[in-house]
Amino acid sequence: MYRLRPFGVPLRAGILALLIAILARPGLSAAEPTSRYIRRLDNASTVIIFVHGVTSSGETAWRSKASYWPSMLTSDSAFDGADIFVHSYPTSFWATMSIDELAEDMRVVFNGNGVTDHKKLIFVAHSMGGLVVRAYLFKHRDIAAKTLFAYFFSTPTNGSQIATLGRMLSANPQFNKMRPMDAEDYLADLTRNWQDAQFKFASYCAYEKRGTYGLPVVTFQSATALCNRPLVPIDADHIDIVKPESQNARSYLAFKEAYRAETLAADETTGPEGKISIAIALTHQKGEAAGAQSKEQSARDRPLPPEQQISYDFTQLGGSTQISYHLPYLDLVRAGGPVKGLAYENAPFEGELPTFLVTVLNNTKETVDITSGELVVQSSKLVNEPIPVFDDFSAGCLRISNQGWTDIVDPLLNMNVARDTGDFALFAPQSRIIKLQTIADGACLSLRDYVPASLRHDDHVKVLGTLEYGAADHRRTLAFSTRVKLEIRARQGIPPDATYQAFFKAGEVGRYSFLFDYPQQVKPGETAAFLVRIKSDRTSQTNMTIDFKTIDGRIVHGGAFALDLFVPKMDTKTWVKAGVKTR
Fold it and tell me: Which of 119, 265, 330, 336 lies 20 to 30 Å from 472, alpha-carbon distance?
């Protein structure tokens, strides 16, 4: 028997809002669900299949205010040549089919619409739709053998607490099957069956980072179980994780990245006999990054805010791949702000390093042992750009660090000190214009002479204004707002973790070898995959190729890349007390 524990007011309000949203969803219509092709081509060998979650539908699950995900694929050349099919099934608070029965319903729909006539099947599944896909593929191994890959977005592999609540309020058997997993439950059987099947195709997972109406729907552990490819966090709730607004949205890019990687690898299987082929694609596998989290932060699962997260996107340009970094805080700096003070333990920015999924196909008659790789840098240009960062809650002084690779020249500070009252601040009667010395690494401006007498007993103050800097012919202005603690307390930094990586020196050409810990063995007719994470010492724009060497000295070419790499300058150990002149 299940009993509801007493909920606090905020939690009760969140549950009520979530239930109202579920009941109001168009997917609850009693009408027969309609599955349909968004695009059907003559003689297409590949089909991309979208499968929605519980109490949703093929029309509502993938639709944002601005776009409909399945239709977006039709205008993206990366998906040219593939059919696109949206599967819908009966699911509501009053539905009668179990997950296994929905899997059989899927068989009927697929066979009736010619979906299984395709040579390659690709699944995009949301929430419970992922469980239906797994049940279907386990029952129909012939279809699993034709599956290229599956992408599971917030699928409750280990169950969900929200399903327990839904079970108490609804007779829909789908909720009962999704309650948190015990050893004798349906989900436990599905997990054991899936593991025993040892399917060869790739399983990708993306997990939600935001609560839905304040409530976590599918946890990280539940959303990422049974996957064998890099895990991708999406800064969205359980509903919006599959509603990309544009082709630049993270959910869209994550699926596109997997599609490129898996279709490239599959295409290589038709290569000529006697050839070793390599396909390389950028992946969002997390690892040590520039400004990696401390061990303490990782343990608490407290990543830095999105504006401090470094990510990489890629586009295909002829025979090369353009890889570019994205850092929202830097976008604000380039636009002149306003920026807020940043809170961090070790470094102000964190995120992924550009990491390649390398797939090797051995079409020879001999086993191949790959022992090393080599970055071949044809050109590399240093990117010299100052990046001012204001610390949030620095102690006793306004702390400005320079995370760029050139000096903050002739900085001029126009500053107000005020009481912090949230979004609204009471300005001090007079702004101060302060000329600072050039900032190479960092500077600390004491506020002793600038805090009004009425604020000196406050715990902290708000500092806001503008920072003007740069050469006389290229001055830049950055609006900022931050907080300074008037009571000085020591802070302790924690060193970052290490990671396996391929390193090159920015601004220089040359060859940079990286040895494998052990040979990557690829037997005849088989495929192997591994990760190569790229790192450098400076922000740079670099053209390179990646080659790999076998144990007998053969060179296998991996591909050409134009890499736009961001590396923040994080050495803030030496702080220079700012020399100031007041006018």
Answer: 330
